[in-house]
Amino acid sequence: MMFLEHTYTIDELIKRCRAGERKAQELLYNWFASKMLGVCFRYAADRMEAEDMLQNGFIRVFQKINDYRGEGSFEGWIRRIMVHSSIEFYRKHHKMLQVADIDEEGREQAVNPHVTANLAAKDLMALIQQLPPGYRIVFNLFAIEGYSHKEIAVLTGITEGASKSQLSRARSVLKNQVMKMESKKYGYAG
Amino acid sequence: MDMQDKNIDELFRSKLDAFEIEPSADVWPRIAVDIDLNKRKKAWAPYIGVAASIIVLFTAGILFIPKKEKQDAGQPVINRVVKTTVSRSVTKSEPILSGRTAFAVLQTTTHEKRRHPVGAEISPRAEAPDTVKTSGHAIAALATAREHQLTDPVVPGTATQLAVKEVVAVEPGFITHPTITPVRLTVISNTEEPVKASHKIHSLGGLINAVVARVDKRQDKVIEFTDDDDETNVTGINLGIIKIKKEK
User: Fold this and answer.
1) B177-225 per-position pLDDT tens digit
2) Contacts from B14-18 at CB under 8 Å and sequence distance 24+?
3) A55 with B20: Cβ contact below 8 A
4) Which of A78, B7, B118, B134 has the fewest Cβ atoms nearer than 10 Å?
5) Is the separation of the CB atoms in A144 and A42 below 8 Å?
């Protein structure tokens, strides 16, 4: 006996998810889970936090799936929900996005762009995860998601000035860390 | 050469924007459990709203009813209302007889005023031997005995509920206990079209609003709900000291 598994388009899955079909929800989760965990990972300090954010995000996706009107890509819509879910997670668990001053280790060092191209994604992810939550969220929203400081202020509840300041500090820390990584890996001294 | 801000942004964006990582196997089961829990919560939500409304109405009833009784106690005239069935909120009373004892036919309609005299159409039927009858003979007999006041007959609407109201004026020192027996009044003929309700109830909220409107005659009711097909939400609460009203 041969079992054939039916393949669905994303539109079919959305339609069935709107009807509350559990199997369709699972298929939709399987479709996007890895990508969305990648998004949550950038906002989280570790895997456990990232999976909690992913869980909350998907619950919201299924609750609000009727609100998706087909304007823009569905992946973009889910991604925005994941970002909001991640920020909400921090607001809930860390109360505020306060940042402690961290040692930026003196002057910024020069970085060779040709060498950084060889850095692995997981190494850069580790650098982001080491940032304090406030730096991490603002850097992610501005540098990777493309939000403006005004939008970040609305989303996170901090001022535009605080957003700019945290971005600047995050960049400074990351530059120094990238330099260290380069010198370890390739013996590049700058 | 110092790396420009844009370069560091670009470095992280290019490497991490499409970053994927496989979630643990237990994430989906946790999501499925949460979805079920949310469904159950949603299923209970309307019942919790109804239970809360009943409690509020009950409390409001306890607060309002004793006040009425106190006002009545100070009046020399004792009004007794004997009703067979009452299902509408607005009640009009038209006295038939005047004197120490007066009978009135209570007409209950929704919003419209009476249209036609219907005295002949009403045929009261006594159920017990000592029942007070409202037919012509009985009224006349009672009028001579007790100085009844004759009043206009009343026209009930189509879906009219009828009841007899007996108003007994008792002088101090001569308080007796009149025996009042329920009288069932029937409408023999009524060719009018049934009275249509001016407001349709769309949801549970509308139903509760209608019930509250009967009990609470204030402009801002003790509790008000939206009457939408989609969902039922509380739009206003008036507990006297505490008054909350959602702007429409």
Assistant:
1) 555 555 555 444 444 445 444 567 777 888 888 888 888 888 888 888 8
2) B15/A119, B15/A120, B15/A121, B15/A124, B16/A38, B16/A42, B16/A121, B16/A124, B16/A125, B16/A128, B16/A144, B17/A144, B18/A35, B18/A38
3) no
4) B7
5) yes
pLDDT grade, residue A105 (50/70/90)?
very low
Neighbours of B8 (CB within 10 A): 21
Of residues A59, A111, A171, nearest to B31 (C-beta) = A59
Assigned token pair, B118 = 């219907």
What is the spatial distance between Cα A14 and Cα A25, in angstroms, rounded to a whole number?
8
- Which single residue is written with the structure tokens 């370890």? A184
d(CA A49, CA A41): 8
Q: Which of A171, A177, A180, A188 to mutate to test the interface with B (most CBs of B within 10 A)?
A: A171
Triad A12, A14, A19: Cα angle to 5°:
100
Alpha helices, H only, B74-115: none
A71, two tokens: 């304007």
- Asked if residues B232 and B203 have their Cβ atoms less than 8 Å apart, the reply is yes
SS3 B164: strand
For chain B, strand residue ranges (E) read: 77-83, 90-95, 101-109, 122-125, 161-169, 184-187, 223-225, 234-238, 243-245
Residue B48 has a pLDDT of 79
CA–CA gap between residue A2 and residue B73 (Å, rounded): 87
Alpha helix (H) residue ranges in chain B: 5-16, 27-73, 136-146, 204-215
Q: Would you list the DSSP string of B131-151? A: PPP-SHHHHHHHHHHHTPPP-
CB contact under 8 A, B20 and A34: yes
Residue A104 and residue A176 in contact, taking contact as beta carbons nearer than 8 Å = yes
Q: A139 touching B, CB under 8 A?
A: yes
CB contact under 8 A, A55 and B34: yes
Q: How confident is the model at residue B57 (pLDDT cuts 50, 70, 90)?
A: confident
Residue pair A178/A127 in contact (Cβ under 8 Å)? The answer is yes
pTM of this structure = 0.52
What tokens appear for B36 in the block? 């079920």
Give the pLDDT of residue A113: 53
**Is A108 within 8 Å of B21 when comparing Cβ atoms?**
no
Residues A89-101: tens digit of each pLDDT: 988 876 555 554 4
A55 → closest Cβ in B17, B21, B31: B31
Do residues A50 and A44 lie in contact, with contact meaning Cβ atoms separated by under 8 Å?
A: yes
Q: How many CB atoms within 10 Å of residue B161?
A: 19
